[in-house]
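Record type: ASSEMBLY
Status: queued
Input:
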Amino acid sequence: MLSKKSKYLQIAFNKSLEEVSQMINLLPPSPKIILEAGTPFIKQYGKEGIGFLKEIWSQKMGNKAYVVADLKTMDRGEREVKIAASAGANAATCLGLAPIETINEFILNCKKLNIDSMIDMLGVEFPFEILQKLKTLPDVVILHRGVDEYEHNKQKQVPYNQIHRIKGTYNNVLISTAGAESAREVLSGFFNDSNIVIVWRSFYENPQNTKEIAEEFLKLIK
Amino acid sequence: MKKKSKDKGFLFFIILIIILIIIGGLNVLILILSFVLSISIIILILNFIDSIKKFLNINLDANKQKTVKIVEKESVNINPEIYSEPIILRSTSQNKLEKRQKYLHIALNNNLTEAKNIISEIPDSHKILIEVGTPLIKTYGIKAIEEIKSYAPNNYIIADNKCVDLAPREVEMFALAGANASTCMGIAPVETINSFIKECQKYNIDSIIDMMNVPNPLLVLKKLKAAPNIVMLHRGVDETHFSKEKQIPYYQIKQIKGSYNVFIAVAGGDTIQEIRRAVFNDADIVVVWKSFYKSTKNISKVANLFLDEIK
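Status: finished
Output:
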Protein backbone atom coordinates (compact mmCIF):
# COMPACT_ATOMS: atom_id res chain seq x y z
CA MET A 1 0.00 0.00 0.00
CA LEU A 2 1.29 3.43 -0.91
CA SER A 3 1.65 6.26 1.58
CA LYS A 4 0.07 9.65 1.02
CA LYS A 5 3.06 11.51 2.33
CA SER A 6 5.61 10.00 0.04
CA LYS A 7 6.51 10.61 -3.60
CA TYR A 8 6.98 7.71 -5.98
CA LEU A 9 8.59 7.20 -9.33
CA GLN A 10 6.78 4.57 -11.39
CA ILE A 11 8.76 2.97 -14.19
CA ALA A 12 6.76 1.30 -16.94
CA PHE A 13 8.13 -1.78 -18.68
CA ASN A 14 7.10 -2.50 -22.21
CA LYS A 15 10.14 -4.31 -23.50
CA SER A 16 10.83 -8.01 -23.81
CA LEU A 17 11.34 -10.28 -20.81
CA GLU A 18 15.06 -10.70 -21.54
CA GLU A 19 15.71 -7.00 -21.36
CA VAL A 20 13.65 -6.48 -18.23
CA SER A 21 16.04 -8.14 -15.79
CA GLN A 22 18.97 -6.32 -17.33
CA MET A 23 17.20 -2.98 -16.85
CA ILE A 24 16.10 -3.70 -13.32
CA ASN A 25 19.74 -4.31 -12.39
CA LEU A 26 20.51 -0.72 -13.27
CA LEU A 27 17.91 0.68 -10.88
CA PRO A 28 18.82 1.79 -7.36
CA PRO A 29 16.88 -0.29 -4.79
CA SER A 30 14.39 2.02 -3.09
CA PRO A 31 10.81 1.53 -1.91
CA LYS A 32 10.04 4.81 -3.62
CA ILE A 33 10.58 3.27 -7.00
CA ILE A 34 7.65 1.20 -8.21
CA LEU A 35 7.56 -0.90 -11.34
CA GLU A 36 4.76 -1.24 -13.82
CA ALA A 37 4.00 -4.13 -16.15
CA GLY A 38 2.83 -2.08 -19.14
CA THR A 39 -0.30 -2.98 -21.13
CA PRO A 40 1.56 -4.29 -24.22
CA PHE A 41 3.85 -6.23 -21.89
CA ILE A 42 0.87 -7.90 -20.19
CA LYS A 43 -0.84 -8.59 -23.51
CA GLN A 44 2.35 -10.19 -24.77
CA TYR A 45 3.37 -12.29 -21.77
CA GLY A 46 0.18 -12.44 -19.73
CA LYS A 47 0.22 -13.32 -16.05
CA GLU A 48 3.69 -14.78 -16.36
CA GLY A 49 5.07 -11.39 -17.32
CA ILE A 50 3.65 -9.74 -14.20
CA GLY A 51 4.96 -12.59 -12.04
CA PHE A 52 8.39 -12.37 -13.60
CA LEU A 53 8.65 -8.63 -12.97
CA LYS A 54 7.58 -9.08 -9.38
CA GLU A 55 10.10 -11.86 -8.83
CA ILE A 56 13.06 -9.98 -10.28
CA TRP A 57 12.22 -6.81 -8.36
CA SER A 58 11.71 -8.85 -5.18
CA GLN A 59 15.21 -10.25 -5.50
CA LYS A 60 16.42 -6.69 -5.07
CA MET A 61 13.76 -5.26 -2.76
CA GLY A 62 12.54 -8.19 -0.68
CA ASN A 63 8.91 -7.92 0.37
CA LYS A 64 8.88 -4.19 -0.31
CA ALA A 65 8.79 -4.76 -4.05
CA TYR A 66 5.76 -2.97 -5.48
CA VAL A 67 4.49 -3.89 -8.93
CA VAL A 68 1.58 -2.32 -10.80
CA ALA A 69 -0.31 -4.33 -13.41
CA ASP A 70 -1.42 -1.86 -16.08
CA LEU A 71 -4.46 -3.90 -17.10
CA LYS A 72 -6.44 -0.95 -18.45
CA THR A 73 -9.61 -2.86 -17.55
CA MET A 74 -12.60 -2.04 -19.70
CA ASP A 75 -15.00 -4.82 -18.76
CA ARG A 76 -15.13 -7.86 -16.43
CA GLY A 77 -13.72 -5.95 -13.45
CA GLU A 78 -13.76 -8.92 -11.10
CA ARG A 79 -12.09 -11.37 -13.48
CA GLU A 80 -9.25 -9.01 -14.39
CA VAL A 81 -8.45 -7.98 -10.82
CA LYS A 82 -8.17 -11.67 -9.97
CA ILE A 83 -5.71 -12.23 -12.81
CA ALA A 84 -3.46 -9.40 -11.60
CA ALA A 85 -3.67 -10.25 -7.90
CA SER A 86 -2.94 -13.93 -8.47
CA ALA A 87 0.12 -12.95 -10.51
CA GLY A 88 1.46 -11.02 -7.51
CA ALA A 89 0.67 -7.44 -8.49
CA ASN A 90 0.25 -4.84 -5.71
CA ALA A 91 -1.97 -2.61 -7.80
CA ALA A 92 -4.04 -2.78 -10.99
CA THR A 93 -5.43 -0.15 -13.34
CA CYS A 94 -8.91 0.36 -14.76
CA LEU A 95 -9.91 2.87 -17.43
CA GLY A 96 -11.92 5.89 -16.43
CA LEU A 97 -13.62 5.49 -19.82
CA ALA A 98 -15.03 2.09 -18.83
CA PRO A 99 -18.71 1.77 -17.90
CA ILE A 100 -19.32 2.96 -14.31
CA GLU A 101 -20.50 -0.54 -13.38
CA THR A 102 -17.09 -1.89 -14.36
CA ILE A 103 -15.15 0.73 -12.39
CA ASN A 104 -17.26 0.08 -9.28
CA GLU A 105 -16.76 -3.65 -9.64
CA PHE A 106 -13.05 -3.13 -10.17
CA ILE A 107 -12.58 -1.01 -7.02
CA LEU A 108 -14.67 -3.39 -4.93
CA ASN A 109 -12.61 -6.40 -6.00
CA CYS A 110 -9.30 -4.59 -5.45
CA LYS A 111 -10.43 -3.95 -1.87
CA LYS A 112 -11.42 -7.59 -1.46
CA LEU A 113 -8.07 -8.85 -2.70
CA ASN A 114 -6.18 -6.13 -0.85
CA ILE A 115 -4.46 -4.45 -3.78
CA ASP A 116 -4.46 -0.77 -4.73
CA SER A 117 -7.00 0.36 -7.32
CA MET A 118 -5.82 2.87 -9.90
CA ILE A 119 -8.22 4.61 -12.28
CA ASP A 120 -6.54 5.69 -15.48
CA MET A 121 -8.11 8.86 -16.87
CA LEU A 122 -6.70 8.43 -20.39
CA GLY A 123 -9.01 10.23 -22.80
CA VAL A 124 -11.30 11.50 -20.01
CA GLU A 125 -11.95 15.21 -20.32
CA PHE A 126 -13.32 15.74 -16.83
CA PRO A 127 -11.95 13.11 -14.39
CA PHE A 128 -13.89 14.84 -11.68
CA GLU A 129 -17.22 13.80 -13.19
CA ILE A 130 -16.22 10.15 -13.20
CA LEU A 131 -15.16 10.21 -9.55
CA GLN A 132 -18.50 11.74 -8.56
CA LYS A 133 -20.40 8.81 -10.04
CA LEU A 134 -18.48 6.09 -8.17
CA LYS A 135 -19.74 4.17 -5.13
CA THR A 136 -16.31 4.18 -3.47
CA LEU A 137 -13.17 6.10 -4.32
CA PRO A 138 -10.13 4.43 -5.87
CA ASP A 139 -6.73 4.59 -4.14
CA VAL A 140 -5.02 6.33 -7.03
CA VAL A 141 -6.17 8.48 -9.94
CA ILE A 142 -3.88 8.50 -12.99
CA LEU A 143 -3.88 11.61 -15.14
CA HIS A 144 -2.71 10.44 -18.48
CA ARG A 145 -1.50 11.66 -21.82
CA GLY A 146 -1.44 8.70 -24.21
CA VAL A 147 1.64 7.82 -26.27
CA ASP A 148 -0.30 7.85 -29.56
CA GLU A 149 -1.96 11.13 -28.59
CA TYR A 150 1.38 12.81 -28.00
CA GLU A 151 2.99 11.27 -31.10
CA HIS A 152 0.38 12.79 -33.39
CA ASN A 153 -0.42 15.92 -31.47
CA LYS A 154 2.54 17.49 -29.69
CA GLN A 155 0.33 20.18 -28.24
CA LYS A 156 -1.39 17.79 -25.87
CA GLN A 157 -0.29 18.49 -22.33
CA VAL A 158 -0.18 16.27 -19.28
CA PRO A 159 -3.24 17.62 -17.46
CA TYR A 160 -1.50 18.99 -14.35
CA ASN A 161 -4.26 21.53 -13.85
CA GLN A 162 -6.58 18.73 -12.71
CA ILE A 163 -4.39 17.70 -9.77
CA HIS A 164 -5.48 20.38 -7.32
CA ARG A 165 -9.04 20.23 -8.42
CA ILE A 166 -9.23 16.54 -7.54
CA LYS A 167 -7.15 16.78 -4.37
CA GLY A 168 -9.25 19.70 -3.13
CA THR A 169 -12.36 17.52 -3.03
CA TYR A 170 -11.04 14.03 -2.58
CA ASN A 171 -8.05 14.37 -0.30
CA ASN A 172 -7.68 10.65 0.28
CA VAL A 173 -6.82 9.94 -3.32
CA LEU A 174 -3.25 9.79 -4.58
CA ILE A 175 -2.55 11.41 -7.92
CA SER A 176 -0.33 9.84 -10.48
CA THR A 177 0.68 11.57 -13.71
CA ALA A 178 1.65 9.70 -16.84
CA GLY A 179 3.12 10.95 -20.07
CA ALA A 180 6.29 12.72 -18.89
CA GLU A 181 8.97 12.35 -21.56
CA SER A 182 11.96 14.07 -19.97
CA ALA A 183 13.63 14.64 -16.61
CA ARG A 184 12.19 18.12 -16.66
CA GLU A 185 8.66 16.89 -17.12
CA VAL A 186 9.16 14.41 -14.29
CA LEU A 187 10.15 17.27 -12.02
CA SER A 188 7.25 19.41 -13.11
CA GLY A 189 4.94 16.50 -12.27
CA PHE A 190 6.15 16.47 -8.68
CA PHE A 191 6.21 20.24 -8.56
CA ASN A 192 2.53 20.23 -9.50
CA ASP A 193 1.86 18.01 -6.49
CA SER A 194 1.45 14.60 -8.05
CA ASN A 195 2.29 11.70 -5.70
CA ILE A 196 3.43 9.36 -8.43
CA VAL A 197 5.10 10.16 -11.74
CA ILE A 198 5.12 7.47 -14.43
CA VAL A 199 7.93 7.35 -17.00
CA TRP A 200 8.39 5.06 -19.95
CA ARG A 201 9.67 6.59 -23.14
CA SER A 202 13.11 7.57 -21.94
CA PHE A 203 13.37 4.08 -20.62
CA TYR A 204 12.58 2.54 -23.94
CA GLU A 205 15.32 4.37 -25.71
CA ASN A 206 18.06 4.52 -23.15
CA PRO A 207 18.20 2.56 -19.90
CA GLN A 208 21.08 4.72 -18.69
CA ASN A 209 18.86 7.75 -18.99
CA THR A 210 16.24 6.23 -16.73
CA LYS A 211 18.84 5.25 -14.18
CA GLU A 212 19.84 8.90 -14.04
CA ILE A 213 16.26 10.06 -13.71
CA ALA A 214 15.77 7.56 -10.89
CA GLU A 215 18.87 8.75 -9.07
CA GLU A 216 17.99 12.39 -9.57
CA PHE A 217 14.53 11.72 -8.27
CA LEU A 218 15.79 9.99 -5.16
CA LYS A 219 18.12 12.93 -4.44
CA LEU A 220 15.29 15.36 -4.94
CA ILE A 221 12.87 13.82 -2.49
CA LYS A 222 15.36 13.35 0.28
CA MET B 1 -24.87 -23.57 -147.74
CA LYS B 2 -28.19 -23.17 -146.00
CA LYS B 3 -28.02 -26.80 -144.76
CA LYS B 4 -24.50 -26.23 -143.49
CA SER B 5 -25.61 -23.18 -141.52
CA LYS B 6 -28.58 -25.15 -140.19
CA ASP B 7 -26.17 -27.97 -139.18
CA LYS B 8 -23.94 -25.40 -137.52
CA GLY B 9 -26.90 -24.00 -135.57
CA PHE B 10 -27.93 -27.53 -134.57
CA LEU B 11 -24.37 -28.41 -133.53
CA PHE B 12 -24.13 -25.20 -131.55
CA PHE B 13 -27.40 -26.07 -129.84
CA ILE B 14 -26.20 -29.57 -128.94
CA ILE B 15 -22.90 -28.28 -127.59
CA LEU B 16 -24.76 -25.76 -125.47
CA ILE B 17 -26.99 -28.50 -124.03
CA ILE B 18 -23.96 -30.67 -123.32
CA ILE B 19 -22.23 -27.79 -121.55
CA LEU B 20 -25.37 -27.11 -119.51
CA ILE B 21 -25.64 -30.76 -118.55
CA ILE B 22 -22.01 -30.81 -117.52
CA ILE B 23 -22.48 -27.67 -115.39
CA GLY B 24 -25.64 -29.13 -113.84
CA GLY B 25 -23.84 -32.37 -113.12
CA LEU B 26 -20.98 -30.50 -111.53
CA ASN B 27 -23.45 -28.58 -109.40
CA VAL B 28 -25.10 -31.76 -108.25
CA LEU B 29 -21.70 -33.24 -107.56
CA ILE B 30 -20.70 -30.21 -105.51
CA LEU B 31 -23.96 -30.35 -103.64
CA ILE B 32 -23.48 -34.03 -102.85
CA LEU B 33 -19.90 -33.45 -101.82
CA SER B 34 -20.78 -30.53 -99.51
CA PHE B 35 -23.59 -32.58 -98.02
CA VAL B 36 -21.20 -35.41 -97.23
CA LEU B 37 -18.67 -32.97 -95.85
CA SER B 38 -21.15 -31.25 -93.51
CA ILE B 39 -22.40 -34.57 -92.22
CA SER B 40 -18.90 -35.72 -91.49
CA ILE B 41 -18.20 -32.40 -89.70
CA ILE B 42 -21.34 -32.83 -87.57
CA ILE B 43 -20.28 -36.36 -86.67
CA LEU B 44 -16.83 -35.09 -85.74
CA ILE B 45 -18.33 -32.36 -83.48
CA LEU B 46 -20.62 -34.86 -81.77
CA ASN B 47 -17.67 -37.13 -81.16
CA PHE B 48 -15.70 -34.23 -79.70
CA ILE B 49 -18.54 -33.30 -77.32
CA ASP B 50 -18.79 -36.90 -76.22
CA SER B 51 -15.12 -37.11 -75.44
CA ILE B 52 -15.31 -33.81 -73.44
CA LYS B 53 -18.23 -35.23 -71.46
CA LYS B 54 -16.25 -38.32 -70.67
CA PHE B 55 -13.26 -36.24 -69.63
CA LEU B 56 -15.39 -34.11 -67.30
CA ASN B 57 -16.98 -37.14 -65.74
CA ILE B 58 -13.60 -38.56 -64.92
CA ASN B 59 -12.59 -35.29 -63.28
CA LEU B 60 -15.73 -35.08 -61.19
CA ASP B 61 -15.11 -38.57 -59.97
CA ALA B 62 -11.57 -37.65 -59.06
CA ASN B 63 -12.84 -34.68 -57.01
CA LYS B 64 -15.29 -36.87 -55.20
CA GLN B 65 -12.54 -39.24 -54.33
CA LYS B 66 -10.37 -36.37 -53.09
CA THR B 67 -13.05 -35.01 -50.73
CA VAL B 68 -13.60 -38.44 -49.36
CA LYS B 69 -9.90 -38.67 -48.73
CA ILE B 70 -9.87 -35.34 -46.82
CA VAL B 71 -12.74 -36.43 -44.63
CA GLU B 72 -10.92 -39.62 -43.82
CA LYS B 73 -7.78 -37.73 -42.92
CA GLU B 74 -9.68 -35.47 -40.52
CA SER B 75 -11.30 -38.26 -38.65
CA VAL B 76 -7.87 -39.77 -38.19
CA ASN B 77 -6.42 -36.47 -37.04
CA ILE B 78 -8.98 -35.99 -34.30
CA ASN B 79 -7.73 -39.05 -32.48
CA PRO B 80 -5.03 -37.65 -30.17
CA GLU B 81 -3.69 -40.98 -29.03
CA ILE B 82 -2.33 -41.96 -32.41
CA TYR B 83 -0.84 -38.63 -33.45
CA SER B 84 1.31 -36.50 -31.21
CA GLU B 85 1.41 -33.53 -33.64
CA PRO B 86 -0.94 -30.55 -33.00
CA ILE B 87 -4.54 -31.62 -33.30
CA ILE B 88 -6.29 -29.81 -36.12
CA LEU B 89 -9.98 -29.64 -35.40
CA ARG B 90 -11.16 -27.53 -38.34
CA SER B 91 -10.66 -27.51 -42.08
CA THR B 92 -12.56 -24.58 -43.62
CA SER B 93 -10.25 -21.78 -44.57
CA GLN B 94 -11.33 -18.20 -43.84
CA ASN B 95 -9.23 -15.05 -43.90
CA LYS B 96 -11.57 -12.25 -44.87
CA LEU B 97 -15.27 -11.69 -44.26
CA GLU B 98 -17.75 -11.69 -47.12
CA LYS B 99 -20.42 -9.06 -47.58
CA ARG B 100 -24.04 -10.16 -47.17
CA GLN B 101 -23.01 -13.12 -45.07
CA LYS B 102 -24.02 -13.49 -41.42
CA TYR B 103 -21.47 -14.73 -38.92
CA LEU B 104 -21.56 -16.16 -35.41
CA HIS B 105 -18.69 -14.87 -33.31
CA ILE B 106 -17.86 -17.10 -30.36
CA ALA B 107 -15.81 -15.48 -27.60
CA LEU B 108 -13.53 -17.70 -25.51
CA ASN B 109 -12.74 -16.22 -22.11
CA ASN B 110 -12.08 -18.80 -19.44
CA ASN B 111 -9.00 -20.91 -20.03
CA LEU B 112 -7.20 -22.70 -22.82
CA THR B 113 -8.42 -26.21 -21.95
CA GLU B 114 -12.00 -25.03 -22.04
CA ALA B 115 -11.30 -23.16 -25.27
CA LYS B 116 -10.05 -26.36 -26.83
CA ASN B 117 -13.15 -28.25 -25.73
CA ILE B 118 -15.44 -25.59 -27.13
CA ILE B 119 -13.62 -25.57 -30.47
CA SER B 120 -14.00 -29.33 -30.74
CA GLU B 121 -17.75 -28.99 -30.05
CA ILE B 122 -18.71 -26.32 -32.55
CA PRO B 123 -19.64 -27.22 -36.13
CA ASP B 124 -16.98 -26.79 -38.79
CA SER B 125 -18.22 -23.75 -40.70
CA HIS B 126 -16.61 -20.64 -42.09
CA LYS B 127 -19.60 -18.74 -40.72
CA ILE B 128 -18.20 -19.18 -37.23
CA LEU B 129 -15.56 -16.72 -36.04
CA ILE B 130 -13.46 -17.45 -32.96
CA GLU B 131 -12.47 -14.71 -30.53
CA VAL B 132 -9.63 -14.91 -28.04
CA GLY B 133 -11.17 -12.83 -25.23
CA THR B 134 -9.45 -10.08 -23.24
CA PRO B 135 -9.12 -12.16 -20.04
CA LEU B 136 -7.40 -14.95 -22.00
CA ILE B 137 -4.97 -12.48 -23.55
CA LYS B 138 -4.23 -10.87 -20.20
CA THR B 139 -3.70 -14.27 -18.61
CA TYR B 140 -1.65 -16.04 -21.27
CA GLY B 141 -0.42 -13.19 -23.46
CA ILE B 142 0.04 -13.79 -27.20
CA LYS B 143 0.49 -17.47 -26.41
CA ALA B 144 -3.31 -17.59 -26.16
CA ILE B 145 -3.63 -16.56 -29.82
CA GLU B 146 -0.98 -19.00 -31.00
CA GLU B 147 -2.50 -21.84 -29.03
CA ILE B 148 -6.06 -21.25 -30.24
CA LYS B 149 -4.80 -20.74 -33.78
CA SER B 150 -3.21 -24.17 -33.54
CA TYR B 151 -6.54 -25.75 -32.52
CA ALA B 152 -8.33 -24.03 -35.41
CA PRO B 153 -5.67 -23.06 -37.96
CA ASN B 154 -8.10 -22.29 -40.78
CA ASN B 155 -10.64 -20.32 -38.79
CA TYR B 156 -10.95 -16.59 -38.62
CA ILE B 157 -9.37 -15.64 -35.28
CA ILE B 158 -10.12 -12.36 -33.51
CA ALA B 159 -7.77 -10.99 -30.86
CA ASP B 160 -9.94 -8.99 -28.44
CA ASN B 161 -7.02 -6.90 -27.19
CA LYS B 162 -9.20 -3.80 -26.60
CA CYS B 163 -6.39 -1.42 -27.54
CA VAL B 164 -6.49 2.07 -26.00
CA ASP B 165 -2.91 3.25 -26.52
CA LEU B 166 0.32 2.15 -28.25
CA ALA B 167 -1.67 0.80 -31.21
CA PRO B 168 1.30 0.02 -33.52
CA ARG B 169 2.86 -2.21 -30.90
CA GLU B 170 -0.34 -4.14 -30.20
CA VAL B 171 -1.38 -4.64 -33.82
CA GLU B 172 2.05 -5.93 -34.76
CA MET B 173 2.06 -8.32 -31.81
CA PHE B 174 -1.31 -9.90 -32.60
CA ALA B 175 -0.95 -9.91 -36.38
CA LEU B 176 2.33 -11.79 -36.07
CA ALA B 177 0.75 -14.21 -33.61
CA GLY B 178 -1.72 -15.18 -36.34
CA ALA B 179 -4.88 -13.18 -35.61
CA ASN B 180 -7.11 -12.21 -38.54
CA ALA B 181 -8.61 -9.25 -36.70
CA SER B 182 -7.82 -7.06 -33.70
CA THR B 183 -10.00 -4.75 -31.58
CA CYS B 184 -9.56 -1.15 -30.49
CA MET B 185 -11.88 0.78 -28.16
CA GLY B 186 -14.05 3.51 -29.63
CA ILE B 187 -13.46 5.55 -26.48
CA ALA B 188 -9.68 5.58 -27.05
CA PRO B 189 -8.07 8.84 -28.22
CA VAL B 190 -8.75 9.49 -31.93
CA GLU B 191 -5.00 9.42 -32.61
CA THR B 192 -4.88 5.86 -31.27
CA ILE B 193 -7.85 4.67 -33.36
CA ASN B 194 -6.41 6.24 -36.52
CA SER B 195 -3.03 4.65 -36.06
CA PHE B 196 -4.72 1.36 -35.14
CA ILE B 197 -6.67 1.24 -38.43
CA LYS B 198 -3.58 2.20 -40.41
CA GLU B 199 -1.48 -0.53 -38.80
CA CYS B 200 -4.21 -3.12 -39.38
CA GLN B 201 -4.19 -2.26 -43.08
CA LYS B 202 -0.42 -2.56 -43.09
CA TYR B 203 -0.54 -6.06 -41.61
CA ASN B 204 -3.57 -7.02 -43.71
CA ILE B 205 -5.84 -7.86 -40.79
CA ASP B 206 -9.36 -6.56 -40.12
CA SER B 207 -9.78 -3.64 -37.75
CA ILE B 208 -12.64 -3.81 -35.25
CA ILE B 209 -13.72 -0.72 -33.33
CA ASP B 210 -15.51 -1.70 -30.13
CA MET B 211 -18.14 0.92 -29.27
CA MET B 212 -18.61 -0.11 -25.64
CA ASN B 213 -19.68 2.90 -23.56
CA VAL B 214 -19.81 5.16 -26.63
CA PRO B 215 -23.22 6.87 -26.69
CA ASN B 216 -23.03 7.83 -30.36
CA PRO B 217 -20.72 5.67 -32.54
CA LEU B 218 -21.37 7.82 -35.61
CA LEU B 219 -19.61 10.74 -33.94
CA VAL B 220 -16.51 8.60 -33.41
CA LEU B 221 -16.55 7.30 -37.00
CA LYS B 222 -16.87 10.83 -38.38
CA LYS B 223 -13.63 11.89 -36.72
CA LEU B 224 -11.58 9.07 -38.25
CA LYS B 225 -9.29 9.38 -41.26
CA ALA B 226 -10.36 5.98 -42.63
CA ALA B 227 -13.29 3.73 -41.72
CA PRO B 228 -12.54 0.46 -39.91
CA ASN B 229 -13.60 -2.91 -41.34
CA ILE B 230 -15.95 -3.77 -38.49
CA VAL B 231 -17.87 -1.70 -35.96
CA MET B 232 -18.92 -3.54 -32.82
CA LEU B 233 -21.93 -2.37 -30.85
CA HIS B 234 -21.31 -3.64 -27.37
CA ARG B 235 -22.98 -3.85 -24.00
CA GLY B 236 -20.38 -4.89 -21.44
CA VAL B 237 -20.61 -7.88 -19.12
CA ASP B 238 -20.58 -5.72 -15.96
CA GLU B 239 -23.13 -3.35 -17.49
CA THR B 240 -25.43 -6.23 -18.36
CA HIS B 241 -25.02 -7.74 -14.93
CA PHE B 242 -25.57 -4.62 -12.84
CA SER B 243 -27.88 -2.54 -15.00
CA LYS B 244 -30.37 -4.90 -16.56
CA GLU B 245 -32.32 -2.03 -18.11
CA LYS B 246 -29.49 -1.11 -20.51
CA GLN B 247 -30.42 -1.99 -24.08
CA ILE B 248 -28.32 -2.85 -27.10
CA PRO B 249 -28.89 0.05 -29.51
CA TYR B 250 -30.14 -1.90 -32.54
CA TYR B 251 -31.35 1.24 -34.30
CA GLN B 252 -27.72 2.29 -34.70
CA ILE B 253 -27.02 -0.64 -37.05
CA LYS B 254 -28.89 0.86 -40.00
CA GLN B 255 -27.73 4.33 -39.06
CA ILE B 256 -24.08 3.32 -39.38
CA LYS B 257 -24.58 1.10 -42.43
CA GLY B 258 -26.31 3.98 -44.16
CA SER B 259 -23.19 6.12 -44.02
CA TYR B 260 -20.28 3.67 -43.90
CA ASN B 261 -19.32 0.53 -45.78
CA VAL B 262 -18.57 -1.52 -42.66
CA PHE B 263 -19.61 -4.80 -41.08
CA ILE B 264 -21.64 -4.47 -37.90
CA ALA B 265 -21.09 -6.82 -34.98
CA VAL B 266 -23.45 -6.89 -32.03
CA ALA B 267 -22.21 -8.05 -28.62
CA GLY B 268 -23.93 -8.38 -25.29
CA GLY B 269 -27.12 -10.22 -26.12
CA ASP B 270 -27.85 -12.95 -23.61
CA THR B 271 -30.96 -14.62 -25.03
CA ILE B 272 -31.68 -16.34 -28.34
CA GLN B 273 -34.33 -13.65 -28.93
CA GLU B 274 -31.64 -11.00 -28.81
CA ILE B 275 -29.63 -12.89 -31.43
CA ARG B 276 -32.70 -13.05 -33.64
CA ARG B 277 -33.30 -9.37 -33.09
CA ALA B 278 -29.70 -8.55 -34.03
CA VAL B 279 -29.88 -10.57 -37.25
CA PHE B 280 -33.30 -9.11 -38.01
CA ASN B 281 -31.92 -5.61 -37.51
CA ASP B 282 -29.25 -6.28 -40.11
CA ALA B 283 -26.21 -7.08 -37.95
CA ASP B 284 -23.55 -9.01 -39.89
CA ILE B 285 -21.88 -10.60 -36.89
CA VAL B 286 -23.47 -11.76 -33.64
CA VAL B 287 -21.15 -12.18 -30.66
CA VAL B 288 -21.89 -14.75 -27.95
CA TRP B 289 -19.91 -15.86 -24.92
CA LYS B 290 -20.08 -18.35 -22.11
CA SER B 291 -22.72 -16.62 -19.99
CA PHE B 292 -24.89 -16.95 -23.09
CA TYR B 293 -24.36 -20.59 -23.90
CA LYS B 294 -23.78 -21.56 -20.25
CA SER B 295 -22.16 -24.94 -20.71
CA THR B 296 -19.59 -26.16 -23.20
CA LYS B 297 -21.99 -28.86 -24.34
CA ASN B 298 -24.59 -26.27 -25.21
CA ILE B 299 -22.43 -24.42 -27.70
CA SER B 300 -22.94 -26.79 -30.60
CA LYS B 301 -26.69 -26.51 -30.12
CA VAL B 302 -26.55 -22.72 -30.16
CA ALA B 303 -24.22 -22.68 -33.16
CA ASN B 304 -26.42 -25.05 -35.15
CA LEU B 305 -29.50 -23.04 -34.25
CA PHE B 306 -27.78 -19.93 -35.51
CA LEU B 307 -26.58 -21.57 -38.71
CA ASP B 308 -30.14 -22.76 -39.39
CA GLU B 309 -31.44 -19.28 -38.69
CA ILE B 310 -29.17 -17.52 -41.17
CA LYS B 311 -29.63 -19.97 -44.04
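Annotation: Residues 60-92 of chain B have pLDDT under 50 and may be disordered.
Annotation: Residues 187 and 214 of chain B are 6 Å apart (CA to CA).
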